[in-house]
Amino acid sequence: MNNKVLDYNYASNEIKGYSNSTIAKNEKNDCFVRAVAAATGSNYDSAHNFVEKEFDRKEGKGTKFMALTMEKLEKSGFSIDNKDFKIKVLPEGRITNQYKLYGEVVNRKKTVKSFMKDNPEGTFIVGVSKHAFVVKDGMLIDNRGEEFRPTRKVDSVFQISGNQMSNQLRLF
What we know:
Elements (H helix, E strand, L loop, with lengths): L6 E4 H4 L7 H4 L5 H10 L3 H11 L11 H11 L1 E3 L2 E7 L2 H4 E6 L2 E6 L2 H7 L4 E6 L2 E6 L2 E4 L13 E10 L7
Helix pairs in contact: 3-4
C-alpha cells in the first residue's frame, strides 16, 4: 500500500489467469469483467462467469445496468473463487464535490483524480461514461489502450471488501 495517488497499472498485469485465458482472447467490451477480477483478485474466467450470470452480460457486449445489480448485491454480497465479498454503493456525497457558484452551493461529479485523492485506501470499482476500472489503494488499474484520463467524471463507485474463504472446514 505504498502507492502514490495517481499511480497506474494495466489490468492485464493484475488479473490472475488473464494471459492464458481462452475467453479473454476472444472477448471485447469486458472492462467490467476485468474490473471485477482486479478488485477481487480472482481469476479472469471466474470473474467472467460471475458477471455473465449475475449481470446478464452477453459475450462481446458491455455490462448494462451495472449500478442496479450492484445495489441488489449490496444486500447479499457475492462469492468468487471461494472468497466472499461485500459491496458498498458509495452515496452521491462521496462522488461529488460542492462548489459555490454565484452564491449558490452546487454539487458536481468528482473527477477520477479528485476521487483518488479523497480515497487513498480501499478497493473501488469506478464507473465513468461507458467504462469501468479499479482504484486499489491509490493505484488506478485499467485496460491497455485506456490512457489515464484524470479529468473523466465519476458516475458511480462501488467499494469492494472482504476476502475470507467461504468453504471452511466443518467438523460436524
